[in-house]
Design goal:
Blueprint (H helix, E strand, L loop, with lengths): L72
Protein backbone atom coordinates (compact mmCIF):
# COMPACT_ATOMS: atom_id res chain seq x y z
CA UNK A 1 0.00 0.00 0.00
CA UNK A 2 1.29 3.47 -0.74
CA UNK A 3 2.08 5.77 2.13
CA UNK A 4 1.95 9.53 2.37
CA UNK A 5 4.81 11.13 4.29
CA UNK A 6 4.20 14.69 5.39
CA UNK A 7 6.69 17.34 6.46
CA UNK A 8 9.52 15.95 8.58
CA UNK A 9 12.40 17.40 10.55
CA UNK A 10 15.36 15.19 11.47
CA UNK A 11 17.95 16.89 13.67
CA UNK A 12 20.34 13.96 13.94
CA UNK A 13 20.53 10.18 13.64
CA UNK A 14 23.20 8.41 15.64
CA UNK A 15 23.72 4.85 14.47
CA UNK A 16 20.10 4.27 13.57
CA UNK A 17 17.90 3.59 10.59
CA UNK A 18 15.06 5.77 9.36
CA UNK A 19 12.28 4.00 7.46
CA UNK A 20 9.75 5.73 5.25
CA UNK A 21 6.92 3.94 3.50
CA UNK A 22 5.91 0.33 3.71
CA UNK A 23 7.88 -2.29 5.60
CA UNK A 24 7.55 -6.03 6.04
CA UNK A 25 8.56 -6.02 9.70
CA UNK A 26 10.50 -3.86 12.12
CA UNK A 27 12.30 -5.31 15.11
CA UNK A 28 14.81 -3.75 17.49
CA UNK A 29 18.43 -4.85 17.22
CA UNK A 30 19.54 -3.20 20.45
CA UNK A 31 17.92 -1.74 23.54
CA UNK A 32 18.97 0.65 26.25
CA UNK A 33 17.50 2.18 29.36
CA UNK A 34 17.92 5.75 30.57
CA UNK A 35 16.91 7.18 33.93
CA UNK A 36 16.47 10.95 33.92
CA UNK A 37 14.48 13.56 35.80
CA UNK A 38 11.27 15.11 34.60
CA UNK A 39 11.61 17.36 31.58
CA UNK A 40 15.30 16.63 31.01
CA UNK A 41 14.98 14.84 27.64
CA UNK A 42 12.50 17.19 25.98
CA UNK A 43 13.41 17.94 22.36
CA UNK A 44 11.94 20.26 19.79
CA UNK A 45 11.45 23.94 19.16
CA UNK A 46 10.20 26.40 21.81
CA UNK A 47 9.96 24.11 24.84
CA UNK A 48 8.70 25.50 28.12
CA UNK A 49 8.95 23.04 31.01
CA UNK A 50 7.87 23.92 34.56
CA UNK A 51 8.87 21.31 37.15
CA UNK A 52 8.49 21.36 40.88
CA UNK A 53 10.37 18.89 43.03
CA UNK A 54 11.50 15.96 40.89
CA UNK A 55 13.00 12.64 41.97
CA UNK A 56 14.10 9.73 39.75
CA UNK A 57 14.21 6.19 41.10
CA UNK A 58 16.56 4.03 38.96
CA UNK A 59 15.72 0.81 40.85
CA UNK A 60 14.31 -1.82 38.46
CA UNK A 61 13.18 -5.07 40.11
CA UNK A 62 12.27 -6.94 36.89
CA UNK A 63 15.82 -6.62 35.40
CA UNK A 64 14.99 -7.25 31.71
CA UNK A 65 12.47 -4.94 30.06
CA UNK A 66 12.82 -5.66 26.35
CA UNK A 67 14.62 -8.78 25.18
CA UNK A 68 16.21 -8.81 21.73
CA UNK A 69 17.15 -12.50 21.63
CA UNK A 70 15.84 -14.45 18.63
CA UNK A 71 15.09 -11.32 16.60
CA UNK A 72 15.32 -11.70 12.84
Amino acid sequence: MPSIVGPIKINSVGGGVINFGDSFYLSPKSTSKTNTGSGSLNTGDFICTNNGVSSTNPFDPDVSDQNVTANA
